[in-house]
Design a protein that fits this description.
By secondary structure, the chain is α+β, with helices and mostly antiparallel strands. The protein has one domain (11-233). The chain contains 10 helices and 7 strands. Strands 5-6-7 form a 3-stranded antiparallel β-sheet. A hairpin with a 6-residue loop joins strand 2 and strand 3. Helix 8 (187-197) runs parallel beside helix 10 (213-233) and helix 9 packs antiparallel against helix 10 (213-233). The termini are far apart.
Length: 234
């Protein structure tokens, strides 16, 4: 690394906001409905329910590496503890945490993504760390599910990698058609599909928490309806 490059490299909280490299970004399919028929996905090649949205995310190892780059002494702790002295798990199976980086503390929420047993707590922790780190700006473009800062032209949008610019995987429904919508459905439609497909209150809350003010207003009716359905079914 040259002296100029080293000097220009961002540190601390600024480094946390830097886009992640493409090789640090993973994707996972999320069927638009729980009972969608399974098939070979033309986008990822996997075998899962179709149609599906492909969500981009940063894994636990990549996020931990970035946190250490920003602050070797970063810490996290549960927001509260139960009578047994262990981290408090709420009625929905989720956990609130406090993440401290460079002396600044922010909250995050994570759930076990349907897992049980020993892996459930590890999943909650990783999920909560990603959620809390997002409050610092980590992988913010991925959480936004679209083009966060705007693109200069259509070519820039189509060339987005997920961490930089617009990600087609986040902004569209993969191989989906509903009510005349083309596979390149608006991002708000993708959010609605996510809310309709989840059977988890924590996951529904997490989807809503990652939206902009304008997006929340657009899908608020869907959120309230789905929340009522899930609570009634519980």
């Amino acid at each position: 690394m040259t002296a100029e490059a080293a000097e220009s490299k961002k540190t601390g909280l600024q480094r946390l906001r830097e886009p992640f490299a493409e090789h640090q970004i993973s994707t996972k399919p999320q069927p638009t409905k729980k009972d969608n028929p399974k098939g070979r996905c033309p986008e990822c090649g996997g075998w899962h329910g179709l149609p599906a949205i492909h969500l981009s995310y940063v894994g636990h190892a990549a996020l931990t590496d970035r946190l250490l780059e920003c602050d070797e002494h970063w810490t996290w702790e549960p927001l509260s503890y139960g009578p047994d002295g262990l981290p408090m798990i709420d009625q929905s199976g989720g956990m609130w945490i406090k993440l401290t980086v460079c002396g600044l503390t922010r909250l995050g929420y994570g759930d076990a993504q349907g897992k049980t047993g020993p892996d459930a707590m590890k999943e909650r922790i990783g999920d909560a760390l990603r959620n809390a780190a997002m409050r610092f700006g980590a992988a913010l473009d991925l959480w936004h599910k679209g083009d966060l800062h705007g693109s200069q032209n259509d070519d820039d949008e189509s060339a987005g990698s997920g961490a930089q610019g617009k990600s087609p995987k986040l902004a569209t429904l993969a191989s989906a058609k509903k009510g005349g919508e083309t596979p390149d459905a608006p991002v708000d439609m993708a959010i609605v599909e996510q809310m309709n497909s989840t059977d988890s209150v924590p996951e529904l809350v997490k989807i809503m928490s990652g939206l902009t003010k304008e997006q929340k207003a657009a899908v608020n009716e869907t959120f309230n309806r789905r929340m009522g359905e899930l609570k009634k079914a519980a």
